[in-house]
Amino acid sequence: MPSSAVRTFTDPDDYAAAIRQGTYELTVTERGDFTAKLTRIDLHRLWMQRFSDNLPRISHIAGWGGRAVIAFRTEPGPSLLSSGIEMQPTNIVRYSEAQNYYRHSSGFASYGSMSLSVAEMAAFGDALAGTDLTPPRDAVLITPLPAAMARLQRLHAAAGHLAETAPEILANPDAARGLEQALVEAMVACLADQKAHSNSLAQGQHTIIMRRFRRVLEENPEQPLYIPEICKAIRVPDRTLRQCCQEYLGTGPKHYLLLRRLHLARRALRQAQPNTTTVTETATRFGFWQLGRFAVEYQSLFGESPSATLRQLPG
Question: For labeling, which of 136, 163, 165, 299 is most exposed (least CB within 10 Å)?
Fold first, then answer.
């Protein structure tokens, strides 16, 4: 049954939990009052999402299997990279099935996604354009013809506007079917008549390194990690890891690990009971041994003290 929903957020963890892309981890990298809006639209076979968030951040997405996914910017703005690929309103990123990837923004970002099942994407590609639209092995950037890209942007925006102003239209099966057909045709036109920019050999190697980097983090979720240990585990020199992290995350590995541990500590404090947990226990659990420095860095990033977070009732 077709449906839609529009939600706004002031907490990055709530926002990340609402995004339908598999497992989504969001790490805000600068202090500020976080705001975001998420629009989800499910037609009969086509799934769509529209995103906007205001603060620089690094996200890691572990995608679902079985879906062929594309993403593109819906408005111009500061730098937005996905798997080290710069996203622009004039291009589209195609993802591999169930790909794990990083997305990094340096400020406000507004972007959208669309997906069909892998089988349906292949069938539509064959029927509408006589082309193979099976998901690529690795993420690839494509640049459609300007007219085709503009049409897809207009239809995607129109669907988002209906979700906000007239959701009952999207819930109507016949109306949803007509809109879905137009959107699928526009998407296939973009993917079928385009210029593809394949990843270089170096980019492919960097993707592998970042997947190994992520695996080390997931295998040690609450353990403080140090760069020499990580480099040894993923079998790359420090210089190469720093280069890859700068390319994919917009920052070095040491700074990213610090930000990630601060976010993990905040999530633990938000979920804890003040009468059974202390800030000291939480800080040391995530590798912060200098409590004064932890408090300063925490306050700088989140705009409140660790004890203030702990006193809040779990949401």
Answer: 165
Are 237 and 39 in contact by the 8 Å Cβ rule? The answer is no
Distance CA 209, CA 220 (A): 17
For residues 130 and 161, what is the distance between their CA atoms, to the nearest angstrom? 32
Cα dihedral sign, 20-177-125-193: negative
pLDDT per residue as tens digits for the range 86-124: 899 999 999 988 888 899 999 999 999 999 999 999 999
Residue written as token pair 């300007």 = 146
Average pLDDT over residues 16-45: 93
The torsion defined by the Cα of 81, 83, 84 and 90, in degrees rounded to 10, comes to: -50
Note whether 259 and 29 are within 8 A (CB): yes
Task: Give the CA diameter of the chain.
Answer: 64
Tokens of 15: 């926002």
How do residues 52-86 score in pLDDT, each as one tens digit?
A: 999 999 999 987 789 999 999 999 999 999 988 88
DSSP string, 61-109: EEPPSSEEEEEEESS--S-EEETTEEP-TT-EEE--TT-EEEEEESS-E
Q: Look up residue 50 and give its two tokens.
A: 């529209």
Angle between helices 238-249 and 227-234 (to 10 degrees): 90
Token digits for 30? 């600068």
DSSP-assigned beta bridge partners for residue 8: 37
Question: Which helix H or strand E contains 194, and what residues bound it?
Answer: strand 194-197
Residue 183 token pair: 């959107």
**Angle at the Cα of 246 from the Cα atoms of 240 and 247, rounded to 5 degrees:** 90
40 strand-pairing partners: 5, 49
Kindly state the percentage of the chain with pLDDT values over 90. 66
| 3-state secondary structure (DSSP) of residue 50 | strand
